[in-house]
Design brief:
With 137 residues, the protein is of the alpha+beta class.
């Protein structure tokens, strides 16, 4: 399990999510896929199971890049798929999630204005999760 430093991911949720169609249309292999009622992989018992289907893609699962680099890379991958993502939003909810480990809050996490384009152009929310200490390995 990674330590949740600067984790950035694309998360698509809904009922009866077609994992294969999303993977094919986005040309991305998901990092995780879970059906309603399944726990997040590696966190069984630490967080409640998902209440709907979820398709997750982490551009850097090893947390080797900054938040800025991760969002910019994700936007490079998703920008050509913008029409598909806008259509997808009619059937499913999706968003970009940033998870920050509490110890990292001491530092400053800055995003350049250009990195916010992904949220404006896809009309999605920026979700920031401050991970509970229980989630640390």
């Amino acid at each position: 399990m990674n330590d949740f430093d600067n984790m950035v991911l694309l998360q698509i949720t809904g009922d009866n999510v077609d994992f294969d169609a999303i993977s094919t249309s986005l040309s991305l292999k998901p990092t995780h896929c879970c059906r309603n009622g399944q726990p997040y992989p590696g966190l069984d018992g630490l967080v409640p199971p998902f209440t709907e289907d979820v398709w997750i893609y982490e551009p850097f699962p090893d947390n080797s890049k900054s938040i800025q680099e991760s969002i910019d890379h994700l936007w490079t991958l998703l920008k050509p798929k913008k029409p598909y993502l806008l259509q997808l939003s009619k059937a499913y909810m999706y968003g970009i999630v940033i998870i920050i480990k509490p110890l990292r809050l001491i530092g400053l996490h800055t995003l350049q204005p250009s990195s916010l384009d992904i949220f404006r152009e896809l009309n999605i929310c920026l979700n920031i999760v401050i991970a509970n200490n229980k989630l640390q390995a």
